[in-house]
Amino acid sequence: MGDLKVGNGSGPNICGDCTAPDAEWASLNRGILLCKDCSFIHRSLGPQYSRVKFLKDAGWKLSLRYMVMTLAAGPGNHVWEHLLLNPNKSSDGNVKKPSPSDALEVKRKFIHLKHFLHQFVLRPNSDPFDVRNQELHSTVRTGALDTTLRLLASGADPNFFHPEKGTTPIHVAARNGQAHQVELLFLHGAHMDAADYLGQTPVEHALAAGHKDLAQRIMELRYFLTDQLSYFVCNENPDHSTSKHILIPAVRVTNSKQEEALKNLPATVLEQLAADLYDEVDRRQLEKYVSATIKPASDFTKFSIAFLPVNPNYSSVRNQTRQKFARLSNDELCALITLVLVECKRRHCNGARDIELDKDIFLHGDKHLSSSMKLAGETSVTEDDDYPLYDSVASDEDLILAEQQTILAQQRATFEETALSSSIAKPISSCEITEHSSIASSGAKISEMETKIQELHDDNQNLKQEINVLKNMVVNAIRETVELKTDVHGRSSYSLNGSLSNGHAVTGSLTSPAVYPNGRFKSPRPSSMCESGSLRYDDAIVPIRTCTTEASLGKFHPDLGKSELIQTTTKKIVELIKVLIEQANASDLPSITRTSEKIYLETHEMATALLLKDDECTPEMRHSLENVLLQVLRMKCEVPLLRDSTDGNGKITSQVFLQKVKRLCFDVGAGMKQLVSTVLNPGT
């Protein structure tokens, strides 16, 4: 493809992080070019922070190339270095941009501040997120890529659904033919198959406006994940214009146990597995280019990324599985990817039992497959001279040999521990098949892949159990709130044996109340005091705190309607969340724990007051209320444990701790927003 140059192509490519000339790499989602040193540091951060691509890679799309080069000409760095370029607005006056001659560690520290912590990005304090989201929604109709990148960097949601127009930014960009905006939105997480208020997709918006090429590109981005995996095993991209969306080689692994395990995976887990496999494929592809460009070759280990970096947003099990992919040979990785593609195609075909194999890939594509599989071992980017640059026509001998190998594959499929992973990476014209050794080695490979799939399955089951326990705890808490609250006359719902009326035992220092003649109880303490103890639920001790109705309702006027009640509580919770984030910035764990307890009590008392107005509570409101209580309870339980958690490399950093606290706050805020929307707009 030739060298890619910024602007008119006459000047050198400048690294956006250290200003080194002749940069050969690009960070797609950051919109900057990178030198050898900086590209290595970006790759070590992980694809979740920077998606790196080699400039001489033949897989560049024109719209993607133009978008990256436009931002790399200056606007991209102006976004990520805004405060650095404007010293008056920055509190970090001592931070300086590294030079090309600086040590690798100096560049690493700067890139960590710039791209991991976003320390130099301008964050408007006055504009709420809704304002930025709406600005993004209107900006993507133009070609202002720098404005779009600035809004995305400051926290705008690429999937923001405009409440009045009923569309997301990707619909607007597609309708207005903004192909470069589509590329930028996709790199920052926009959903290519999102539906507008009429159920129309971005592809339909582009076609309706006459942008056929853009519609085709959006279709490619929609199947980007499976396209990359198909290309890895077939060396060919699917033709989406003919509704051929997923390619599967005719010679493939056949193992009933693995296929059945993949069929039982939920859609989200299968998507995560495919995404992790793509990250591994991308890592190997980049390693191939690194080995070809590093001189001398002895420096390759210095710039090599041996396995995928840890993603702090993933569980430890998923991170370990991602890193174990590096131990697979190319043949083994192809076998696993083929199994995933088969399952993806089966689900795409609405659960069809028999998946049609791509016989043309079996005949023509596999002869190029061996060269595409040599990612880790190649030392040159050029094509292998043994293979022609054109597609050869299969001879009669090739057809006979292909038929014989198909029969052999069917015979081997009858054995449970038989796989053809070794055949995937070989040219189809090869006759050097040693059946007994192939079966023995395939059995070991299959066992290892079965273990990996089982680990993913177990991880998914554990997550499901956690969610079910939390949901049951919320439902149980709502029920007990009504039962345990005493009214202003001192009535209580404790049973005679000191247990809750629903049969759950209460432990702790709970004083037995006095009994009225009518069977009810009178609290021996003033009604303003609180009861504390613990609830045993499925062998788990959950702390509970029950306040009398007089104490809790004292904060809310009895004449307050449900709307005023929720809005009042929402304002208090928003203020507490701001305080919580400030405390997280200071890593003040005791204060964070106390503030999360306050948020829990505010929400708990609001729920109590709402449930006492039973005639005003709709099923939708109860569902939203349960969701809020679930998120608040999750915050209360997880915040004290965050400091003891790890990221796979030891204790988590203060920045990761802050991100996790912010995530919990965001979930609580989203739940409150849904509750407010349910109350103010019932039936929508």
UniProtKB/TrEMBL annotation:
The keyword Iron does not apply. ANK repeats lie at residues 165-197. Keywords: ANK repeat, Coiled coil, Metal-binding, Zinc, Zinc-finger. Pfam families: Ank_2, ArfGap. Residues 446-480 form a coiled coil. The keyword Ribonucleoprotein does not apply. Residues 1-128 form the Arf-GAP domain. CDD domains: bZIP. One of its GO terms (molecular function) is GTPase activator activity. GO terms for biological process: brain development; regulation of ARF protein signal transduction; regulation of G protein-coupled receptor signaling pathway. This is ARF GTPase-activating protein GIT2. It comes from Orchesella cincta (Springtail).
